[in-house]
Amino acid sequence: MTAPFFDVAPVVTAIPVGLAFGVALERAGFGVPRTIAAQLAGRDFTVMKVMFSAIVTAMLGLFWAERLGWLDVSRLSLPPTDLFPQLVGAIVFGAGFAIASLCPGTACVAAGTGRRDGLATIAGLFLGTLLAAELWPWLGRAAENHLRLDATLPHDLGWSKGITVALLTAIALLAIWCGGWIERRVHGGIAVIRPRVLPTLSTVAIVLALLAAAPGRAEVTVSADVAPLQLAQWLHDRAPGLRLIEVSDSSDGERSRIPGSERRSVASLDTLTVAPGERVVLYSEDPAVAAEALAVVRRSGTTSVETLRGGVEAWENEVMSPVVPSTTDSATIASFARVRSLSAWFGGRPVLERRTDDVSRKRRRNTC
Amino acid sequence: MNAPKRYSDPILAGVALGLVLLSTILVTGRGLGASGAFASAAAATINTLAPAHAASVPYLAERVPSTAAGIFGDWLVIELLAVAMGAWLSARFANRLQWRGADDVGDRGSARIVRAIGGGALMGVGARLAQGCTSGLALTGGAMLSTGAWLFIPVAFGSAFAAAYVMRQLTRRGQSV
To answer: How far is B6 from chain A (nearest CA, A)?
Structure first.
């Protein structure tokens, strides 16, 4: 069900999303430059409270949607990471944010509520963007060289997603409470509008974050395996840091079942050295062998390791000989186009129908 | 005219904003954004006024809308126009419309307008370098655990606190904000 409206015309989703975004920002008081100036003077922590509670809400929501299997993260477009230009950009942006006392989104809110300084900020944004485009041959020299499209904190720091989410939730809640404390103690109290909201919602967030951090069965079953099509996409895109290992105890010269893999025995895996940022995917002819190999690698302290869901059989069924959908539903056909091109890239060939043995039917239902 | 209603509790407003963000990501596969729309708008404007120039600047040429819908085929442009609409609706029903003008944040009148343009221009440059702003990078990327977003949030706000301090010293009247 992930991103059912990913490919529709922009107006269908952009208008309701924008309206809701505009209402939420306006109700938060973000269209008022005075609110933002008071935050940057350290007197009124509205901006920080709104930003952090929004991030925590969406972050916990995304984490649990993925954990419960409602969300396929590979379909999302993650904002890219390119550390040096982003560092410089953040400094320049922050200065502009303080001077205008509005950001690009809130400038539109300010303009929509009739403020002339909102319109002026929009004009400035337009000019600045144009300037950046003209100067890009110089400005962009540092940019786009180290651009990473899949850089997330869990991946870069080698922490589990649950721990990362729990730590960020803790930091955000602490900042929100400290902001409130400074408002009350140092500046003699901005009236709290609804006193019971913060303790109640904080409790909910803390419980969800603690459950996220707890190593549970769900973590193993949900995030420890890679769908064959996802692996195919990574191999096709030459995803940086991907390391594919075929676990096999036979040392005969037979070719690996998936191109680009190295072959190792289970016994040799406890000395496997994994570089930071590397993502290991294990597979085997026999799924039980891959599961055993996963346990061995995990015991040696590596967390960024996954197995291929369904093993070699699923790779053959889903990538090398995917079944052509027998439907005229345009969305299904459109999504099959991606499967077909990936399959062709690996030298596979779609088939019209597959013998309907119970195993593959059950597996197909699980991966939908 | 009725008195303006007060703004929402910040925590409730934040949770509401977070739910808007969450459902946007779940339904469309992308997050909220703002500054990216200005890149499309700049490219489309220069392409209309001086097509030869737009074609000679790669950063613009890559972003000139290619479909018949033009700039209105860009998701972010539509979304941002709807943001202004949503803000107007929300303020309209809460009696918070401000047709008389600009906020006093240390400067008034034309000085405030000049400040807004200057600040906007700096944000325009900064957002291109950072590949996002407070909406697209900080909020959306923050929720998606993007490394770049969690670099941007502390650095941009740190820089903003420092710049706000300097601005208060320069304007002095800022003390009375």
So the answer is: 9
